[in-house]
Amino acid sequence: MNNALHHAAEQFIQTCHQELGKPSTETQARLKEVKRHIDQFGYYEHTDEELVHGAKMAWRNANRCIGRLFWNRLNVIDARHLQKEADVFQALLNHIEISTNGGEIIPTITIFQPEMAQVAPVRIWNHQLIRYAGYDTPSGIVGDPSSLAFTRACQSLGWRGAGTHFDPLPLVVQLNGQTPRWLPIPQELILEVPILHPHHDLFGGLEVKWYAVPIIADMRLEIGGINYPAAPFNGWYMGTEIGARNLADETRYNLLPRIAANLGLDTRSNASLWKDRALVELNIAVLHSYKHHGVTIVDHHTAAQQFKTFEKNEAKAERDLTGDWTWLIPPLSPAATHIFHQTYENAIVSPNFFYQQPPYH
Ligand code: HEM
Ligand SMILES: N=C(Nc1cccc(CNC[C@@H]2CCCN2)c1)c1cccs1
C-alpha cells in the first residue's frame, strides 16, 4: 500500500512543482519530507499550493468535461480543517453563495478533509448541492425522476418537501460514518431562472424554471494518491444539459410532447421532426432566459470552440490531451461541432475526479 502511495505522491509532487516553476532543490526537499511522512504515518498532507494546483490539474484531466479551457481559473476553498457538522454545513452554504455571485458564476471547489483510515471523515449525500426532489405519487412522478432515491433517503431522515415539481432538496452531510444530518438551503441562497421563449409560449400554463449553479457533490477528488471524498465543485451550465437532457429526457421532465403541442407541430409522424423542432426551441428558450437574468451559461457551439482552444493550449504545453468522445459531443447537433469529427484518447490521468459508491440505497 505505502509503495503505491509513494509512487503516486512522487509523480504528483514532481509534476506539480515543475508546473509551478519551483527550483529542483525545493522539489527534492519536499519529496524527502513526503517520503518520510508516508513511512511514519501512512499518508501525507498537501501544502496549500499543492492542493490548489492539484485541484486545477484534476479539472484539466477530466476527460468528459468540455469546459476545461478555464482549468487554471478555479477558485479553491480549503476546508480540510473543518470537523464539526455546523461548520461543514456553513461551508456548503458559503460555496453556494460565493459561486453564484449574483449570477456571474465563479467556478469553485470546496475541499474537505481527506480519507485517512477507511472511513470517509465527511461524506455529502447530495448528487448536486442544489437539485429538485422527485416523488412517486399515485398520479405519476412529480419533480425530477433522477432524484427519487435521494428524495426517499431525505424523507427517511425526516425531511418533508412541498410536493411541487421544483422542490430544492436539503443538504445531507455524514461525518465519520455516523447518522447523516440534513439542513434545508435558505431559499434566498438559491438563484433560479424562469424558462421562457423569446417569441413563443412553449409550456402553456406550466411554470418551468431551473437553478443557476450546478454543484457536483458526490465525486471523489484524488491528488497524488490522497483521496478527498467530499470536494463539491461547480462551473456554469452548457445550455444543452438543461434544454436537451434535464427538461427533455422522457425519464426526466419530458417536456417535448407538451412543447410540440403548444407549437402546433404534427406529432403523428416522426418525419415531421417535431421532436427536433421542440428541442431547438427549448434550447433557445434556456439560453435566452439565463442571459436575460444575467446568469452565466454557454451554448454548445461556443463551448466546443473553447474546447478547441483548450486542445491547442495543451498541445503548446506539450501535454497529451485525453478526452471521452462519448461525453464531449453535445447531445444537440453534435456533428455541427469539431469534436464529433475527431477522436480522443480516453486515458485516465491523475489528479482526477472519480465516482464513488453512493452512501445510501
Ligand atoms: C466552467 C464551466 C464548465 C462547463 C460549461 C462544464 C461543462 C461540462 C459538461 C457539459 C459536462 C458533461 C456533463 C453531463 O453530460 O452530465 C461536464 C463534465 C464534467 N466536468 Fe465540467 N464544466 C465546467 C466546469 C467544470 C469544473 C469547474 C470542474 C471541476 C473542477 C468540472 C469537472 C467535470 C467532471 C469531473 C465531469 C465528468 C462528470 C462525470 O463523469 O459524471 N467541470 N462538464
Ligand atoms: N456544467 C456542469 N455539468 C455537469 C458536470 C459534471 C457532471 C454533471 C452531472 N452529470 C450526470 C448527469 C446525469 C446522467 C448524465 N448526466 C453535470 C458542471 C457541474 C459542476 C461543474 S461543471
TrEMBL record:
This protein is similar to the oxygenase domain of eukaryotic nitric oxide synthases but lacks the reductase domain which, in eukaryotes, is responsible for transfer of electrons to the ferric heme during nitric oxide synthesis. InterPro entries: Nitric_oxide_synthase_Oase-su, NOS, NOS_dom_1, NOS_dom_2, NOS_dom_3, NOS_N, NOS_N_sf. Homodimer. Residues 64-71 form the Nitric oxide synthase (NOS) domain. Belongs to the NOS family. Bacterial NOS oxygenase subfamily. It is an enzyme of class 1 (oxidoreductase). Its cofactor is heme. Catalyzes the production of nitric oxide. The keyword Oxidoreductase applies. This is Nitric oxide synthase oxygenase. The keyword Zinc does not apply.
